[in-house]
Write a structure and sequence with these properties.
With 102 residues, this protein is an all-alpha fold. The chain has one helix spanning 2-101.
Length: 102
C-alpha cells in the first residue's frame, strides 16, 4: 500500500513538473512570438520610412525642376518685355513729349 501511495505521489510530482514545463514553454513561445512580431513590425516601419523618404526626395527633386522651369520662363518673359520696352521707348518718349509740349 505504501508502495502504491509512493508511486501515485511520484506520478503526481512528475505530472506537476511536466505541467510546469508546459507552462514555461508556453510563456517562452508567447515571448518569442511577441519578439518576432515586434521585429517584423519594426522592419515594416523602417521599410515604410525609407519609401516615404524616397518619395519625398523624388517629389522635392520634381518640385525643384518645376521651379527651375518656371524661373527660366519668367526670365525669358522678362527679357522679351525689356526688348519690347527698348523698341517702344523712343516712340513713347516722343508721344509723352508731344503731349507735354503739345
Amino acid at each position: 500500500m505504501d508502495q502504491i501511495i509512493r508511486q501515485i505521489l511520484t506520478i503526481d510530482q512528475k505530472a506537476q513538473e511536466k505541467l510546469q514545463d508546459a507552462y514555461q514553454k508556453k510563456e517562452e513561445l508567447i515571448q518569442q512570438v511577441d519578439k518576432e512580431a515586434n521585429q517584423k513590425a519594426e522592419g515594416y516601419r523602417k521599410h515604410c520610412e525609407e519609401k516615404i523618404e524616397q518619395i519625398r526626395k523624388m517629389e522635392e527633386q520634381s518640385a525643384q525642376e518645376e521651379i527651375s522651369k518656371i524661373r527660366e520662363e519668367a526670365e525669358k518673359q522678362k527679357e522679351l518685355l525689356e526688348q519690347q520696352f527698348q523698341k517702344q521707348e523712343p516712340v513713347w518718349l516722343d508721344e509723352i513729349m508731344q503731349q507735354i509740349i503739345g
